[in-house]
Specification:
The complex is a heterodimer of chains A (62) and B (375).
Chain A (H helix, E strand, L loop, with lengths): L8 E6 L6 E8 L2 E6 L5 H11 L10
Antiparallel strand pairs in A: 1-2, 2-3
Chain B lengths: L2 H13 L23 E3 L3 E4 L4 E6 L5 E7 L11 E8 L10 E9 L16 E9 L3 E9 L4 E9 L6 E7 L13 E11 L12 E2 L21 E11 L11 H9 L2 E3 L16 E2 L13 E6 L9 E5 L7 E6 L3 E7 L1 E3 L5 E6 L8 E9 L3
Antiparallel strand pairs in B: 1-4, 2-3, 3-6, 4-5, 5-13, 6-11, 7-10, 7-13, 8-9, 8-11, 9-12, 14-22, 15-22, 16-21, 17-22, 18-19, 18-22, 20-21
Chain lengths: 62, 375
């Protein structure tokens, strides 16, 4: 059963040392949350599902 | 329940290797509520409420719900808590076919191995709970095994409105599919409060492959969605291996809290709501001269109170209570709130945060957090 999460926006966060993509900043219900790149994390799994389904676009890091 | 019956049931539980930690539901007594206060649930959404309990309203259009921790409990449980659903805004029409409103609890897969699902040793289980509702009628409960997408359920009747009643439902073991021994969802336990016709028509009295019509088979009472201020409460929820419902297993509050912190934890004091402006219990690095004295980047490290299920989603707060922000200090004097804070290199035990180089001239970071690794 899909448990959909409504993302208002999702932006990449970079590792401050390597400048590689390390996490996401997702706004959910108006609250900015840090979502790790971790299979099994509910928000990450849902970001991946929505991106794969063409329902969500990820913004580049600042 | 007679003392003889109680001893007989406990003996049965003991023979099943189940005398302690037999309740597979975390926070079944609803004592732990780290988020504190009232949780509002809007239309067509899910919210985590009291620890380990999720409220879901699917496809609703106007329904507004509040979930609270209530001190109204059945006398059999003594002093304690229940979870209380209350309708605050009703749906404008009768329940639509695609609408379902439910309280859910997710059991982690590695805690489900005792069930033996998908093997010749699959176990019978029993769910017991107290329920109180302003509306009597026939309600439904289901078990959904996530890996195999298998489902079984049953109805139960609330005989009298506004009265605590204990319900017991027993389910044969699932021999359709196994549950992988991992940190994902093992099973969903779902108490349906209201359900549209898409979900009520099937027969889920035996384990079957999932179909929407099996989610609330036989459920006939769905007027909580259309009766303003109607309530539905649960207390003393226990799911255990065996054919009998043993007395509710009480555990220490500290043990209960620690089990819940595998899925959600916060750095605020227990009674303090996340997002409260405070310095009590703030986290921070030491602010020594070598840690930076410019507008440059600042890094800090911290450890979770217990290891979390997986790397969690984190919300950072500054000391003024603003989410997504951290506070900074210049040698303990100048204080700045509203600075950007980002998570990086996080794991299930430790994490790092970064205040990017665009912030104020400071040399220490101060913050609070919420961390969620809910199923």
């Amino acid at each position: 059963m899909i448990r959909k999460i409504k993302f208002e926006s999702v932006k990449k966060i970079l590792d401050p040392y390597t400048r590689e993509h390390s996490a996401y900043k997702a706004v959910i219900d108006g609250t900015p949350k840090n979502v790790p790149i971790c299979v099994g994390n509910r928000e990450y799994d849902e970001i991946k599902r929505q991106v794969d389904a063409g329902e969500l676009t990820i913004e580049d890091a600042d | 329940m007679s003392r003889a019956r109680t001893f007989a049931d406990l003996a049965t539980a003991s023979e099943a290797g189940n005398l302690s930690n037999r309740n597979m539901i975390h926070n079944g007594n609803f004592a732990v509520h780290q988020k504190t206060g009232t949780i509002s649930v809007g239309t067509n959404t899910s919210e985590n409420t009291l620890d380990r309990w999720e409220m879901d309203a699917t496809a609703t259009d106007q329904l507004a719900i509040e979930i609270t921790q209530s001190d109204d409990v059945p006398t059999e449980l003594g002093e304690g808590f229940s979870i209380k659903y209350q309708t605050k805004t009703v749906e404008s029409a009768t329940v639509a076919s695609d609408e379902i409103v439910r309280l859910r609890h997710f059991v982690e897969a590695n805690n489900c191995q005792r069930l033996g699902y998908g093997t010749s040793g699959t176990k019978t289980t029993t769910i017991s709970f107290y329920v109180k509702s302003t509306i009597a009628g026939t309600f439904s409960f289901i078990i959904y095994a996530d890996d195999g997408a298998d489902i079984i359920g049953s109805t139960y009747t609330i005989n009298s409105a506004d009265t605590w009643e204990r319900k017991t439902l027993t389910f044969v073991g699932n021999n359709l599919g196994t549950i992988a021994n991992d940190t994902g969802i093992g099973v969903h336990l779902q108490w349906n409060i209201a359900a549209g016709s898409n979900f009520t028509g099937g027969d889920n009295s035996t384990w079957k492959a999932y179909a929407a019509s099996l989610l609330a088979s036989g459920h006939t009472q769905s007027t909580h969605m259309t009766v303003d201020e109607s309530t539905f409460q649960l207390a003393g929820c226990q799911w255990e291996v065996g054919e009998v419902a043993t007395p509710f297993e009480n555990i220490d509050f500290a043990d209960n809290l620690q089990k819940c912190q595998r899925y959600y934890q916060k750095s605020y004091n227990y009674a303090t709501a996340p997002g409260t402006g405070t310095t009590v219990g703030e986290l921070g690095n030491d602010g020594n001269g070598s840690s930076g004295n410019s507008t440059g980047q600042m890094i800090a490290y911290d450890t979770f109170y217990i290891e979390m299920r997986v790397t969690p989603t984190m919300t950072l707060y500054d000391i003024a209570g603003a989410s997504g922000k951290v506070s900074t200090t210049k040698h303990g004097t100048n204080e700045y709130n509203g600075e950007t804070g980002n998570l990086f290199r996080a794991g299930s035990k430790n994490y790092s945060i970064d205040r990017p180089a665009t912030g104020n001239d400071a040399n220490s970071i101060r913050w609070f957090f919420e961390a969620s690794a809910e199923l």
